[in-house]
């Protein structure tokens, strides 16, 4: 069983022989002398970190068009780095599966019933994946990693603070986000700079996970207080979003982070705490949630609305969309209709129930199956398992070396799992503000393969 798992997750992956015979790989370092004699390219990773940090800092405050232009500039810069590379590249198994997903998406475009708009979605996907590749290269430097993580936390602090401020001032609602028939229909849902509560909750989740990690990584008192402040404000902001999927994702995030953190410090604990710390922590956490739900009638109604099926208008809407999406998958089972929300918008009206128009499948797994078929969905699930496996392997290695960088990976895994949980019921993480954070978290794990490979 262990051998099969190792085979599936590429635990013993070694692509050197394939790279030596690859024609595509020959463009890497084609102009290596250029970097050797260029003053700017001597600071290649630092410049890359600057470009990425500016995108991460300003993405919640600018339009998607501006984000697109910035992604194009990062793609151009990454191309320059690749052709002028003068050091040996090391490929993580994550890179291989990302490439496979990109290749399946390209094939899906060819067989798409709406090829022109699917190609537009494929270009967007390619920009995100190049962002991942560039970020992974930059994050191989621990100093630049801290810089970029701090950029995310700083931006998250501003977004979260504004969200809390909206709640205190009882901001005007931009849409009917609550079931009009429910007793919580008039409750305030904050949206900060992102314009949508569910999108805001997805954006806040990585900041919460990384602020928890920062509390243990940052050594001095003031940085620890800053991390605690970011965590508190973002937790409050996410609660005020009223996003049920965001709340569930937050619970999973905290439990996943606690479990991985326990394994990190387990050997340093007395025998009593090794046995009882985790049960006591989870028991206290669940008790606090129960007390909070029981003591708040609106929160109680909001939580119970998850379990009443079609009686809740939001649930009913999603169920109708999911039913229509499944019918699309049945008609395009292998390669889907092609990537991108534009392709979805062209095909979905042919299958939708009356009065239930939608811009996405309201589930990232259904969305993946619609865009790239069951083949693409299989590769996506394969990628997720490989990411988690690689992350846990690297955490063990950092723990054995007593390197606190592993705690950043704990935060990354907790954030990735929480985004996947929220993604079961929503597709807001396909928006560029969240999508870039998703690929940043994946890059944070993939980037460490290079260092561990060097150690081996």
TrEMBL record:
InterPro entries: Inorganic_carbon_transpt, O-antigen_ligase-rel_domated, WaaL-like. Pfam families: Wzy_C. The keyword Transmembrane helix applies. The chain crosses the membrane at residues 48-77, 89-111, 117-135, 147-164, 200-218, 225-241, 247-265, 277-295, 359-385, 405-425, 437-452. Residues 233-381 form the O-antigen ligase-related domain. Keywords: Membrane, Transmembrane, Transmembrane helix. It is a multi-pass membrane protein. It is found in: Membrane. This is O-antigen ligase-related domain-containing protein.
